[in-house]
């Protein structure tokens, strides 16, 4: 996202290279006006505060600049003021934000898409479809894991928290062969029903991750699940109800102990 | 990131600073960038935690001052060099990552680092 951010201790300077066409940039039209001003400021390596390019803070930063930078910024600001002159008449103050319709009109008249975002934002309808598909895939994968006797299966809807995935499926397995079996089963289901292949992320281990883009599957050994504690990290993500009752690890160990005892009784009787 | 580069360790594994030695799997590869795995030696560590000073660890580069350029023309640069300690299987040694991480780590097969990170830059 072409945003200007100041991120605390790991402060970063995020800037954009200006296209040869001048003020126009193809990355988010709502940042178009900020881009051209931001480039000249960012070139001095300053950490930018997200906000209005016409706010006092930005003007204060501009006033500290060298003469040629000031001229460049003033030229850019005045150009954009000319474009928005008609809209500014009513307000008598600088218009800080153009409406979408005004930006569309300006883009139509002057705009020239040089390069489009390879990950464009989806419309709400497309997003809803993608959400539904991701949910059905996550539920199918959870069912597949349950069939291979994975325990403590939980499905988190993480889209409100992070942008790079919609659902996290977390499950536990008791041994590496079981982890391999779950991985194989999930890969088969994902390929056959949804045509998706997981992104390669190393060999299966104590924490096995399968990245299907919108759905990310985490398979842990019980000790690793406790160690990494992803459920606490994503505790604000709502849990999704699954169509089956997932066994918890404590009940499965209790059941296996009971089965072991009954087997011993059988052996002693015989 | 070149050999001998010092970088912060951006997780709670116990190491604080590390120095890059090599990039594994290449004979004389000089530069490592965000998303690359490196071999590093711990230079400074939190007392009474597992990684000791002068212990050799593997790490994934999470942030660099040099930064990276993306296909859409965006360039990202960070204020520090930072790496996340991992083990031989690629699992992070710590449980949480500190600071933002670029999404390239996910594309370079280190989605576990991204899962533990508080912020992933689009």
UniProtKB/TrEMBL annotation, chain B:
Pfam families per the UniProt record, alphabetical: Ribosomal_L14 (PF00238)
Gene Ontology molecular functions: large ribosomal subunit rRNA binding; structural constituent of ribosome
GO cellular component, one term: cytosolic large ribosomal subunit
Entry-linked SMART domains: Ribosomal_L14
Gene3D superfamilies to which the protein is assigned, alphabetical: Ribosomal protein L14 (2.40.150.20)
One of the GO biological process terms: translation
Keyword Lipoprotein in annotation: no
Keywords, sorted A to Z: Chloroplast, Plastid, Ribonucleoprotein, Ribosomal protein, RNA-binding, rRNA-binding
NCBIfam families found in the cross-reference section: rplN_bact (TIGR01067)
Family indicated by similarity: Belongs to the universal ribosomal protein uL14 family.
Name by which UniProt lists this protein: Ribosomal protein L14
Gene of this entry: rpl14
